[in-house]
Amino acid sequence: MLNTALAHFNDDIVRAQALHAHASAMVPGVLPDDILRSAWMMAVGACDAYFSDAYADLVSRAIRAKELQPTVQIPDRLNNLKVPVTAVLRQATGGWRWRMAARELMEDQNVLSLNKIRELFNHFFRAGHRLLNQSTISAWITHRDARRRLFGVTATEFRAAPQATHGKICANALQQFEDRFETIFQRRHDCIHNCDRPKVAMQSIAAIDVHKCIQDVEFLVRRCQDAFLIEFPLYLRGLSFNGATRAQVCQ
Asked: How far is CA 53 from the centre of its chain?
């Protein structure tokens, strides 16, 4: 499950890292700066592609589960998906047909906001569990790969803080995380649509900032991947799909 989405992400983030390494070895100037911008765009593009692929994967698996157990009731959101006619008519069978249909649903969309990620994927979480909220962010704050710039607090500081303050710390950390990714996604937009000149002057760019961008994109994708692998089988179980169906669609 989600193997293709993650494999493509891994390939693409390595391309971003290679661009960064190449620019970092060059004499400073216009060309290395533009290669750094390319690395930033590649990293964010890898993120966008991952979430599009992951959504297509989970939708196709949920539909496949319904196909295997037609008597199970599924939520309106899945019932009301506008599946392209070509998906119904194509010769492919089983999960592949529905995966291609779900990909077609995402063709004209991007997934470059945390709110959009929540909108797409919280549907596949069990009741009471949500992605990127105050209740779940503490596990990300204390993850071994977490960094202060993402949350405004380190894992050590969070663990040492009085329990009574954890709610406020998590709220602030979540806001900082959202602000960080708004900045990352907006810089990609500036590079693509305005040649990194959102106002009048060209924005400066530094290799260290691109390195941090790549690290932070990796952190987001890998934590979401971990969450999806845990939550999706539990979501199916909550809908009353049996163990055999879950095993078949979640492999």
From this structure: 10
Determine if residue 73 is left, alpha or beta; phi over 0 gives left, psi from -120 to 50 gives alpha, anything else beta: beta
| pTM, rounded to two decimals | 0.90
% helix, strand, coil for the chain, step of 5: 70, 0, 30
Q: How many residues does the chain have?
A: 251
Tell me the C-alpha distance between 50 and 100, whole Å: 15
Q: Measured between alpha carbons, how far is residue 114 from residues 97, 128, 170 in Å?
A: 28, 19, 16
Q: Distance (Å, rounded) from C-alpha 135 to C-alpha 137?
A: 6
Distances in Å between the Cα of 245 and the Cα atoms of 4, 28, 55, 242 are 21, 56, 19, 5
Q: Two tokens at 87?
A: 């998906």
For residues 37 and 207, the answer to whether their CB atoms sit within 8 Å is no
Cα–Cα distance, 238 to 158 (Å, whole number):
33
Number of domains making up the chain: 1
pLDDT in tens, 116-170: 999 999 989 988 889 999 888 999 999 999 999 999 999 999 999 999 999 999 9
Q: Tell me the C-alpha distance between 97 and 77, whole Å.
A: 19
Task: Report whether 51 contacts 117 (CB < 8 A).
Answer: yes
> Residue 183 is part of which domain span?
3-249
CA–CA distance, 36 with 18 (Å, rounded to integer): 10
